[in-house]
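ok so for the tutorial part 2 we go from a plain amino acid sequence to predicted structure tokens. step 1 is just haveing the sequence, like this:
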Amino acid sequence: PLLRSSTAQGHPQRVSVESRLSLRQDLGLALLHLREEAGLSQDALRLASGVAQSRITAYETGRAAPNYVTLHALAEALGVQASAIVSRAETNAALARTRASRSR
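step 2 — the prediction. this is what the tokens look like for a chain of 104 residues:
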């Protein structure tokens, strides 16, 4: 299955399964790093956010991605805006692409 998103011109485009997996992993790493920077354990984040620890583990390992409401709950517990989590994920992805292109 493919997700649909929009190009800069507003035209729909397809997003591959591989891209979705990468996005989940990038988002997971961003959550992990922000949690560690905040000095929180997964259990402490669970208590502060109301999100099950098993879900936090799934997010941080890239096995799942939080929905909009959950992302906001995690962000609030981490003391950041949800956009900061997404921005960190995008930055991590860009750095990874840069490293990959340099190693070729």
